[in-house]
Design brief:
With 79 residues, the chain is mainly α. 62% of the residues lie in helices and 0% in strands.
Length: 79
């Protein structure tokens, strides 16, 4: 049985109506947790096996505060 089917069934049994279902929910949760714990976008991309950094950035948008801490200050602006 595919991971997506297992996750969907578990969500249904728990009565959870999540906007994301299946394996994508697990991938997004992992990426957000890694970002909150200080992982870099490159590290997250390696774990999720993304070929392009732009794909990993989709996941990073979820936690804007963590993303701000990872981003360097814009030259000439107050940090």
């Amino acid at each position: 049985m595919a991971v997506c089917c297992i996750v969907r069934r578990a969500l249904a049994r728990a009565g959870i109506d999540a906007p994301l279902k299946g394996a994508h929910l697990l991938r997004r949760s992992l990426a957000c947790g890694m970002l909150r714990n200080g992982a870099s976008l490159e590290e997250i991309g390696q774990i999720l096996r993304h070929r392009h950094p732009e794909t990993t950035q989709i996941y990073a948008k979820v936690d804007l505060e963590a993303l701000r801490m990872l981003a360097p200050a814009w030259p000439g602006s107050a940090s």
